[in-house]
Amino acid sequence: MWTCWIGEAAWLAVADTAPEDAESLRPVAARLRFLTLSEAFRGDPGDSAGLWRDGSGDPAVDLGMVFGSDAADLVVQRCRRARWEWHRCLDAYQSHVLLAAATPAEIECEIDALVFRYQGRQATRPRRTATGLPLVTRWSVIDDAREPLTADDQALLDNVLDRHLLPRMRLGRVVRAAAYPAGDPGRCRPAVTRAARWSRRWAGVLPLLGAAGALVLAGCGQFHAAAITAAASYTTLGALVVVFGRIWATAWLLRLPAAGTVGLFALLTLHFDWWRNPAGSWWAPAALTTASIGYLVGEARNHGVAAVTSIGRALAVAGVGAAHAFLVAVIGLVAVAPALVESGRELRESWQHWPASTGLAILGLGTAWCLAVGVFAQILWDDRPITAPLAHLRWHR
C-alpha cells in the first residue's frame, strides 16, 4: 500500500507545480501513479491476494483501506483517473523529452500495460509484460478475472485502438481486445454472460469459413458458387458488426474492402481485353502486391514501429487486405461485372466455361488490383491510417 501513497504524493507534487517547471516530470509521475494503483486489477485473483496483504488475508479489505476505511470506490476512481492521465502522456509522447527517447518496443510495452493485464503467473520472469486479457478497473475483478469491461474501460480501449494499436498494425492485440466482452454483469444472468463471452470470441469464425469456402470453390472452377459464398461471408460479417459493435469491428480492417471496392469500379471501366485475353504471367499481380506491401512497411515505420517488426506487421495487414480484395474481386467480376460492362453476356458465359487456371489468373489480377487501390487509397481517408475503423466522426475533446 505504501507504493500507492508514494505514487499519489509524486503526482500531487507535480500537479501543484507550475506547468513549465513540472513538464518533464509529469509523465514520470503519471506512469508511477497508474502502475501502482492498477496493479491489483492486473493479475489473476491469486496474484492480487499476494500483493495486497497486510495481515488480514483478505485482499479486498486490504486494498479498500489504502486511502481510508472502506474507501474501495476511491481506489477504483483514482486508478481510472490515473490511467487517463498516463494515456494523455502517451498520446503526446513525442512532445515529452523522456518519452521521446524511448525505443519503439518500450513505447509499445507501456501501451500494452495501459489496456492489458498480465498473462497468467509471471512472477518468475525478470520483467512482467502485459499480454493477457484487457485491463478491467472493476472492484470485483480481484475475485473474478473474467469480469466484463466497464464503460470507462471500453472508452479508453477504443481510444488506444484508434491511436496506437491500429496505426502500429498490432493485429494480435486488436483481436484480443475485440474478443473480450463489455457490459454490466449485474444486468445479465450468468448464463447470458457466458454465452456473450463465447459468441464474441468465436463468432468471427463464421466469416472466415465463408472466405475459405469461396477460395476453395474458385480453385475448383465453381466461380458463381464462390461469388455467392463470398457475398454470404460479408453478409454474416455485417450482421455480426451490428450485434457486437465498433470495437469488435476494428479487427476486420473494413477500410480495406471499402477502398478495394472503389478499385473494382475503376477496373470495370477498363477495356474488356484485359479479361478476354489474360496474360499468361503473374508479373502484374506480383508487382501490385509488392508495391502494396512496400507502402504498408513505410506506413508502419512512420508510425513508430521497429524496422524488422514493421515488415512482419505489414505482411499481416497485406494478408488481411488480400483476403478482402479476393472476396471483392469474386463478387464484382463474377456477379456484378456481367450486368454492367460491355460484352457482359460473353463474360457471364466465360465464367461458366473457363478452366480453373484461367479464371484464377483473372481473379488473381483483380485481387492484386483491388489490394493496391485499397492500400494506396489511404491518402483519401482524411490523413488516417488504412487500419483505422470505418468511421469519420469521433466525439472526443
Secondary structure layout plus pairing:
Blueprint: H1 2-15, H2 19-22, H3 26-38, H4 45-51, H5 59-64, H6 72-91, H7 97-100, H8 104-115, H9 151-165, H10 171-178, H11 190-202, H12 205-219, H13 223-244, H14 246-250, H15 255-268, H16 273-276, H17 283-302, H18 307-340, H19 344-353, H20 356-376
Helix pairs in contact: 1-3, 3-6, 6-8, 6-9, 12-13, 12-18, 13-18, 15-18, 15-20, 17-18, 17-20, 18-19, 18-20
Q: What structural category arises from helix and sheet content?
A: mainly alpha
Helix content: 55-70%
The total count of strands amounts to 0
Give the uncertain stretches in residue-range form: 121-127
Indicate the mean pLDDT.
83
Beta-strand fraction estimate:
under 5%
Question: Helix count?
Answer: 20
Order of SSEs: HHHHHHHHHHHHHHHHHHHH
The outline comes out as elongated
* Largest beta-sheet characterization: none
Whole-angstrom Rg: 25 Å
CA distance, first residue to last residue: 34 Å
Summarize the structure.
By secondary structure, the chain is mostly helical.
